[in-house]
């Protein structure tokens, strides 16, 4: 049964999907779509995803976009019952709560920082402060739990790890947040080193370098 991920190597949500696939030992064909040169706006891709974003998963003709819906779909389909996306109603609701928080608040506040710069506008330092405030709320919550949603690694940890790693690569320093730092080390130890290096660190640094070249070059 053909399974294909349309992605870009520097796209944080694409990498969230690629990480989760590795953690559940699921593989798919990967098709790179350059959002830089406008491949995502060509009719071939628009016929798959009229919302023209990556990542987009195509499972035997069924197209799904939005990284957080893709990762929960992948676990439910290929690793049902896996602790990354628990089936217990309240545990799952807590994981979903963090996924929505990342999408609607945390990553959204990072996007408010880098989005305008990618569109050729000046960097707004105050946007970084909003992100840091959100990171502090995460830090506070991580005082009492090992992972964001409780005692076990979940897809929410993956999504939020990528968000905070990209922020750090863009120069938003959250290293004073000790609970976040401890949690990141814990998540890193749950990955195999090459997945951590390529899909978290290298990809964040690649996007961070691109951001800095646009934000701070005169
Ligand atoms: N909320 C979406 C965000 C997807 C997104 O913004 N992807 C970017 C690349 S990181 C993209 O495809 N941009 C081109 C576009 O939306 O037209 C997700 O989590 O999948």
Summarize the structure in words.
The protein is an alpha+beta fold and 218 residues long. Helix content is 58%, strand content 8%. The chain is built from eight helices and four strands, in the order βαβαββαααααα. It has a four-stranded mixed beta sheet, with helices on one face. α1 links the parallel β1 and β2. It is globular, with a radius of gyration of 17 Å. Bound molecules: glutathione.
What's the structural blueprint in terms of helices and strands?
Blueprint: E1 3-7, H1 12-23, E2 29-32, H2 43-46, E3 56-59, E4 62-65, H3 67-78, H4 89-118, H5 125-141, H6 155-169, H7 178-190, H8 193-215
Parallel strand pairs: 1-2
Antiparallel strand pairs: 1-3, 3-4
Glutathione binds at residues 8, 11-13, 35, 40, 52-55, 66-67.
Q: Would you kindly provide a brief summary of this structure?
A:
The protein is α+β, with helices and mostly antiparallel strands and 218 residues long. The protein has helices at residues 12-23, 43-46, 67-78, 89-118, 125-141, 155-169, 178-190, 193-215, and strands at residues 3-7, 29-32, 56-59, 62-65.
């Amino acid at each position: 049964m053909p399974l294909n991920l349309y992605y870009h190597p520097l796209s944080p949500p694409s990498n969230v999907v690629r990480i989760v696939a590795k953690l559940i030992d699921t593989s798919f064909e990967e098709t790179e779509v350059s959002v830089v040169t406008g491949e995502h706006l060509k009719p071939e891709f628009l016929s798959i995803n009229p919302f023209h974003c990556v990542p987009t998963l195509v499972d035997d003709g069924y197209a799904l976009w939005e990284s957080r819906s893709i990762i929960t779909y992948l676990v439910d389909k290929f690793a049902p019952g896996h602790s990354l996306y628990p089936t217990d109603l309240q545990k799952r609701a807590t994981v979903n709560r963090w996924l929505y928080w990342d999408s609607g608040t945390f990553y959204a506040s990072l996007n408010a920082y880098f989005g305008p710069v990618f569109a050729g506008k000046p960097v707004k330092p105050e946007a970084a402060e909003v992100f840091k405030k959100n990171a502090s709320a995460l830090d506070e919550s991580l005082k009492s739990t090992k992972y964001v949603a409780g005692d076990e690694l979940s897809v929410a940890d993956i999504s939020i790890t990528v968000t905070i790693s990209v922020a750090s690569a863009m120069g938003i320093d959250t290293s004073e947040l000790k609970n976040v730092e401890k949690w990141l080390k814990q998540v890193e130890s749950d990955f195999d080193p090459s997945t951590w290096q390529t899909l978290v660190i290298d990809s964040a640094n690649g996007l961070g370098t691109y951001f800095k070249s646009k934000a701070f070059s005169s």
